[in-house]
């Protein structure tokens, strides 16, 4: 215990303590305070002496050109803008906006329904929250920063004019219905950090023709690609284990698809309404089909659809009845060897140049393969209207 006998010292200590309590009270009270600078309103998130952090939102909804600063001063304190707040620019009419590289979080519905035509999300941003850009109908282009980890549910839902999207490798959490009903979306590249393509992620993207799925993806959830009517080709990753119900339903332009040998489960109606689906190639054992007794995975597909299964596979042979499985025909095939050699290509002016190791094979239907005798790398072949498939493998 400290004993103070000097009255002057005691007074000084009391005064200092009072000032400390006052400063602490003022600092605590500042959190949540709002102030306006120009067209923007700021809310204090943290404050420590002469510095702090704030979230930002639009104050003047008639503003056409808005640039968010990285810092803003108020009352002698310099605040760093780290957050774009909930509903911050909802229904705003500006065609573009500059987000500074101090921003870490874009909160719920921050830009929902606004008139943005394009936007760049800086590398500083870690989180894009649910509904962040929901129904930005005029937005044709968006660049997502290389450090974003989370893209929330419905983040870009109904961005009807969006043409393409690249999801960086940093993203590990891709939400449900992220690009739902992006009707003009033609191409999408999914980064290597994504392991699950969630419920309805690309559902209703009727113009989607090009999609890159990384090998790290193990699950394609329900309705992930439902009604992607422009999709004519898709390569499923080699680590995929499950395909959810309605995952590719109403992909009405898809002619064929190859199911990796790692897939163990396919959900109900997975390929329902794929009106041009003629071949489904299974590279592994018969997967478990989660369907009701009266439905299945091939509803409203051509009666001529063939499920190709690996030669002499016991699990398939046990399930095939009168040459059919899932009410469609079946046939054996020879899947590419796991020891497939390296193969790359270049196509110019109707000539396909193949660079490969091992032995080169070709096929007209990706089922029946023939060795290309005496083919030496690089090998050139003219490709006009006919469609050929090539692969190379070690051995003959």
Question: How would you characterize the overall build of this protein?
Answer:
The chain has helices spanning 7-30, 314-319, and strands at 34-37, 40-48, 51-58, 66-67, 71-74, 77-84, 97-98, 105-106, 118-120, 127-128, 141-143, 150-151, 164-167, 173-174, 187-190, 196-197, 210-212, 219-220, 242-243, 256-259, 265-267, 279-282, 288-290, 306-310, 324-325, 328-333, 343-348, 351-356, 359-363, 370-371, 379-382, 389-393. Among the domains are: 187-335, Leucine-rich repeat, LRR (right-handed beta-alpha superhelix), CATH 3.80.10; 343-393, no CATH class. The protein is built from 2 helices and 32 strands. Strands 1, 2, 3, 5, 6, 8, 10, 12 and 14 form a 9-stranded mixed sheet that branches. The longest helix is centred in the N-terminal third of the chain and has 24 residues, at 7-30. β2 (40-48) and β3 (51-58) form a beta hairpin. By secondary structure, it is mainly beta. It is elongated.
């Amino acid at each position: 215990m400290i004993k103070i006998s000097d009255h002057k010292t005691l007074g000084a200590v009391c005064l200092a303590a009072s000032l400390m309590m006052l400063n602490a009270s003022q600092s605590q009270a500042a959190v949540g305070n709002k102030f306006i600078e120009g067209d923007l309103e700021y809310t204090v998130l943290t404050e420590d002496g002469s510095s702090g952090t704030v979230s930002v939102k639009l104050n003047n909804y008639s503003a056409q050109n808005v640039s968010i600063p990285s810092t803003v001063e108020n009352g002698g304190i310099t605040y760093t803008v780290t957050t774009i707040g909930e509903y911050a620019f909802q229904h705003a009419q500006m065609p573009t906006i500059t987000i500074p590289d101090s921003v870490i979080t874009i909160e719920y519905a921050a830009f929902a329904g606004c008139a943005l035509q394009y936007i760049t999300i800086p590398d500083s941003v870690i989180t894009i929250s649910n509904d962040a850009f929901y129904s930005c109908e005029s937005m044709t282009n968006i660049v997502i920063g290389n450090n974003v980890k989370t893209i929330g549910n419905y983040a870009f839902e109904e961005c009807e004019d969006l043409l393409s999207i690249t999801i960086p490798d940093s993203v590990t959490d891709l939400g449900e219905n992220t690009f739902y009903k992006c009707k003009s979306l033609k191409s999408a590249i999914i980064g290597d950090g994504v392991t699950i393509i969630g419920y309805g992620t690309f559902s209703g993207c009727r113009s989607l023709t090009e999609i890159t799925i990384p090998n790290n993806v193990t699950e394609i959830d329900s309705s992930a690609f439902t009604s992607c009517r422009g999709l004519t080709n898709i390569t499923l990753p080699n680590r995929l284990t499950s395909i959810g119900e309605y995952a590719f339903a109403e992909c009405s332009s898809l002619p064929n698809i190859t199911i990796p040998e790692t897939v163990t489960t396919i959900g109900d109606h997975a390929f329902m309404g794929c009106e041009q689906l003629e071949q489904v190639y299974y590279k592994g054992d018969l997967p478990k089909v989660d369907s009701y007794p009266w439905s299945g995975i091939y509803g409203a597909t051509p009666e001529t659809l063939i499920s190709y299964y690996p030669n002499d596979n016991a699990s398939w042979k046990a399930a095939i009845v009168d040459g059919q499985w899932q009410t469609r025909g079946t046939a054996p095939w020879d899947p590419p060897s796991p020891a497939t050699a390296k193969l790359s290509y270049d196509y110019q002016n109707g000539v396909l140049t193949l660079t490969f190791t091992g032995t080169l094979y070709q096929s007209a239907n990706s089922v029946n393969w023939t060795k290309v005798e005496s083919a030496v790398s690089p090998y050139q072949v003219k490709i006009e209207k006919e469609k050929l498939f090539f692969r190379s493998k070690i051995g003959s």
